[in-house]
Amino acid sequence: MSIVANVASTVVGFGSVILMFRIQRELQMRDKNETSWIAYSDWLVIVAMIMAGSLGLALPLSIRWFQLTKFPAAACSSSVILLIGYVFAILAHYRLILGRGRRGRRKNPEPAEKVLISIFGVLATDVFFSSLA
After folding, report:
1. CA-based angle 116:125:87, to the nearest 5?
2. Where would a tag sit more exposed on the chain, N or C end, judged by fewer CB atoms within 10 A?
3. What is the DSSP letter of 106?
């Protein structure tokens, strides 16, 4: 159980740092009167933090039944997949990968970003349910 708690804490910690950098950037954009938004790829981090923090950390520490199930490990595994997916999705959002030929204002989400979010979302869901079996 302690390994799962360590992983969950790490996911929540990394996710918090990532979100703080992203929020800081969006506030800077707003100060410059630029369009600011929560990128779709940021939702991968938000969902990962919620899963790791609730199913991987808080519930197992407070409800004994969760200690006896595979939910905490499944949630942490899925959360790690989502964080890995975030790296690629945010790069696609800024057209640093899979969109270098695109010109003009960015969209939210970028086409490549949407595909990567879908792929990693399905992969994380599959890992979650596979871990429960």
Report:
1. 35
2. C
3. -
